Amino acid sequence: MHDKQIRRRRAVLALLVVISLALLTDYFGESASSPLHSIQRGIATVLSPLQSGASTVLSPFRDAVNYVGSTFNAKSQLSQVRAENARLKSELASVQYEGLQYKKVAAILNLDKSYSLTQYAPESANVIGENPSLWYKSITLDKGSSAGVKLYDPVVGPGGLVGDVSKLGSDYSVVALVTSPNFAISATIENQQGASGLIQPRVGDPSTLMLNDLPANANVSNNQLVVTASWKDTTNSTESIAPAGIPIGTVSSTNPQSSVLENQQVQVTPSVDLQRLTLVQILTHPHAG
Asked: How does DSSP classify residue 66?
């Protein structure tokens, strides 16, 4: 019984193949006006409205699928663009930081050369902490006694004097800035008279220094350079903390006294931008030579 069904199916299949071949042969062999071609055109005419309608009905779904696909593609491209943008920003920030550091190193090296600071055994140090106080009292460096740093060693930065070491550890040091309320150092105005006085921060204005105790007849004008003044007291073996000639700032305003018996006082703007210090040098042998 099973074999008969198989033979019957094979016979039907063979018959259908023969009929299909016959129809194909007849279709391609006949002219355009033949019955088979007419039937084809009729079927196409009947199904054409159905095909158009189906296309119209399915068009929103097709558009939705295309929109979803394009949206996912756009999001993927946006993520790639954002990642590339973040990478480029990071590289730009790194290049800008390196450029800024290079400028600061160049400024310090220029200071060394201009004022012969190499004879004082300068030790380069990075600023690793700063006092957030309004008075700009101090900064912390990453070099200490293990690097040869001592208390009261002067510290210089791009532009001139920064301050002196006020606290010391084996691997760190705290620097009292020139704007610290307790800081004071002797200074000289670089002019023909070379008038000297004492540099101290201006009360109520941490960004400004005052050069006090100048002779009343000292010829002082704006934009004159103020530098450290070296002195030594042989009676008690004391001397100034810094070598002579290191820039401190420039005269920004004068206030001469009317009496020749009184001293005059001038305002000085620091040469160093104390709010943006990242690299400095500690003069570990400030009185060498």
From this structure: H
